[in-house]
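User: Here's a structure from my thesis project, written as structure tokens. My advisor, Dr. K., wants to see whether a designed sequence matches the one we expressed. Can you design one independently, without my sequence as a hint?
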């Protein structure tokens, strides 16, 4: 069986970006067409293969993936169990009594993987550095990880300070990708809070009021979604 490589071995930011987008799109097509939700996205299962001059992203490790029911929801037998790898789990899922695992939670995991990479990956030398001290708390117990991510996602000064510490080769990606994605998740959380006070009508919890969707995620990346027939999907 062919062995694929970890994203920190990809060698350059452009190739990292291509592999990352492939994984996001493959995940979307597995969900929308295959009716399967991954539920355990982490730095270890976003991988890549080199095919000639192409860098192709591969989303691996579907061991705890769940099939979706006719309503597009995870089956009730697994929906409310803690699933995922703590540093990359969505804030909601780190609660002691987590809600049902939704597609938007996996999108949030992709975002944390992106930030984690920008803080820890030395692509030039194809190495994963020791975990940066400013996000080491993400890799802690459930409550500490939840709290530190919440502050990062809701406090613009704190998030700006953290993102100023990214590895130099990722600095361009902060403005290009990370900040637009941060804003998307921030607006989703604000919509949720306003809905709790009855100030938003027709709030959709599955997308945090329409903010957290695949198409908005891709828009934040500045990439046009490719159809299933043209996407470079390897799962």
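Assistant: Designed independently from the structure alone:
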């Amino acid at each position: 069986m062919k062995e694929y490589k970890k994203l920190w071995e990809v060698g350059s930011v452009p190739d990292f970006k291509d592999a990352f987008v492939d994984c996001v799109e493959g995940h979307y097509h597995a969900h929308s067409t295959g009716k399967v939700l991954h539920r355990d996205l982490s730095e270890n299962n976003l991988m890549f293969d080199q095919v000639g001059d192409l860098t192709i992203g591969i989303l691996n490790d579907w061991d705890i993936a769940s099939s979706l029911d006719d309503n597009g929801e995870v089956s009730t037998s697994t929906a409310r169990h803690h699933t995922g790898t703590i540093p990359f789990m969505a804030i909601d899922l780190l609660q002691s009594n987590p809600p049902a695992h939704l597609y938007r939670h996996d999108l949030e995991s992709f975002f944390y993987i992106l930030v984690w990479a920008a803080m820890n990956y030395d692509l030039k030398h194809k190495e994963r550095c020791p975990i940066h001290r400013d996000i080491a708390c993400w890799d802690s117990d459930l409550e500490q990880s939840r709290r530190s991510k919440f502050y990062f996602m809701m406090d613009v000064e704190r998030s700006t300070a953290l993102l100023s510490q990214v590895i130099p080769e990722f600095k361009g990606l902060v403005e290009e990708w990370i900040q637009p994605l941060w804003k998307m998740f921030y607006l989703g959380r604000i919509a949720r809070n306003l809905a709790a006070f009855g100030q938003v009508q027709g709030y959709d919890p599955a997308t945090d009021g329409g903010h957290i969707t695949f198409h908005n995620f891709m828009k934040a990346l500045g990439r046009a979604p490719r159809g299933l027939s043209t996407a470079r999907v390897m799962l």
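When you compare it with your expressed construct, this may help: Strands lie at 5-6, 36-37, 46-51, 54-59, 66-67, 121-122, 127-128.
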